[in-house]
Amino acid sequence: MSNIYLIRHGETYFNEFYNSQKKTFKEKILDKNWNPFIFPEWMDLNEKGKKDANFVAEYFKMIQIKNVSIYSSNTKRSLDTAEKTREVLGIRKIMIDNRLNEINVPWEKSNSLVNLEDFLKEINSLDKLLLFTHGNLIYQFLKSLDCQPLYKIQNGSVMLIKNFKYPNQEIMRVV
């Protein structure tokens, strides 16, 4: 049984300026084939994102979490958020896993939810996990457990799934 902390990366310049309802970036309407990775610096943590990363790290320090494994998607924004926690908790290493990468975005097609299930099978024996990942993946994962969030998953947010055991989620709960 595991306690899994799902952490959304800190805010990026893209998060700050992109309006998903209007499909605009800095008030400019985007073409349907637009790809934000043309400008990779848009995916870096902005000042608020750096504060988000500090907040997450201080939260885990405050609750005195011990004997924890840190996993992150391979994106710079997730790694930068995870790195602050690694540093504050004095953990040796962040395990990078592509199965924690972004999903359901028009510029990147993937089977991340299927990949996440494979990932969970592999790490099922670990006790405490910090998973630094992306809002869409967190949302889809919670939805797959019949636990749909009632609010937007904010940058820098932490969700705890207590007593998770894959594939049997009878004793799972999100706090």
Average pLDDT metric: 79
- Rg over CA atoms: 16 Å
The CATH class label is Alpha Beta
Helix content: 25-40%
Tally the beta strands: 9
Strand order of the largest sheet: 6-5-7-1-8-9
What is the CATH-assigned architecture? 3-Layer(aba) Sandwich
Q: Compute the number of helices.
A: 5
Classified in CATH, the superfamily is Phosphoglycerate mutase-like
Beta fraction of the residues? 15-25%
Give the termini separation: 16 Å
Estimated structural class: alpha/beta
Overall outline: globular
Report on this model:
By secondary structure, this protein is an alpha/beta fold. The protein has one domain: Phosphoglycerate mutase-like (Rossmann fold), CATH 3.40.50.1240. Helices cover 33% and strands 20% of the residues. The protein has 5 helices and 9 strands; from the N terminus they run E-H-E-E-E-H-E-H-E-H-E-H-E-E. The protein has helices at residues 13-17, 47-62, 76-89, 112-123, 135-144, and strands at residues 2-8, 18-19, 24-25, 28-29, 69-72, 94-96, 128-133, 158-164, 173-174. The protein has a 6-stranded mixed beta sheet with strand order 6-5-7-1-8-9. A 3-stranded antiparallel beta sheet has the order 2-3-4. The longest helix is centred in the first third of the chain and has 16 residues, at 47-62. The chain is globular. The two termini are 16 Å apart. The model is unreliable at 104-110 and 170-175 (pLDDT under 50).
Q: Which descriptors apply to this entry?
A:
175 residues, alpha/beta, Rossmann fold, six-stranded mixed sheet, three-stranded antiparallel sheet, 5 helices, 9 strands, globular, disordered C terminus
